[in-house]
Amino acid sequence: MAMTNAFDIDARDPMPLYAQLERAIRFAIATGRLNVGDQLPTVRQLAVNLRINANTVAKVYAELERVGVVETRRGVGTFVRAPDNKTATTRRRTAAQEQRLRALSERFLAEAVTLGFSPAEVLKHIRSRVGEGE
To answer: Residue 90 falls within a domain, yes or no?
Structure first.
């Protein structure tokens, strides 16, 4: 499946492989590279293509299923699931969610600036990444 090359996994990254894969799948969904109803590669297929342990992939799929991001249909495969209730973009945010997003964006921007990027460059990069799925 072509989708496997869209998941960026780096064994040298200090972030655990399962966390990198979960983040990559969520990012692919958020940017529209994976849509509701799209089938994910099989556990074995993704593990082989990414050169990681199948148990790692299975752990990520199980966690994503537990939180309602994907659903597994026995004998058929794993698919991106529609969000419960309203779509994530129209769902009302809580004050705590807004605060967490603010803190996350501040940490991200601060780290990017320490790497030598200007806030404008960071914004340009984010816009290009979001536009990848369109």
So the answer is: no
User: 90 pLDDT exceeds 70?
Assistant: no
Tokens describing residue 76 = 């058929």
Mean pLDDT of the chain: 86
Contact 37, 79 (CB under 8 A): yes
Question: Is residue 2 very low, low, confident or very high in pLDDT (cuts 50, 70, 90)?
Answer: very low
Which uninterrupted H or E stretch holds 109?
A: helix 95-114
Question: Which DSSP symbol is given to 34?
Answer: S
The structure's pTM equals 0.68
Q: Which amino acid, 128?
A: S
Question: pLDDT digit string (tens) for 38-86?
Answer: 999 999 999 999 999 999 999 999 999 999 999 999 999 999 999 865 4
| Nearest in space to 50 (alpha carbons), one of 4, 12, 3 | 4
* Residue numbers of the domain that contains 116: 95-131
Quick one: 126 and 66 in the same domain? no
State the greatest distance between any 2 C-alpha atoms of the chain, in Å, as a whole number: 49
Whether residue 67 is contained in a domain is answered as yes
3-state SS of 25-60 is: HHHHHHCCCCCCCCECCCHHHHHHHHCCCHHHHHHH
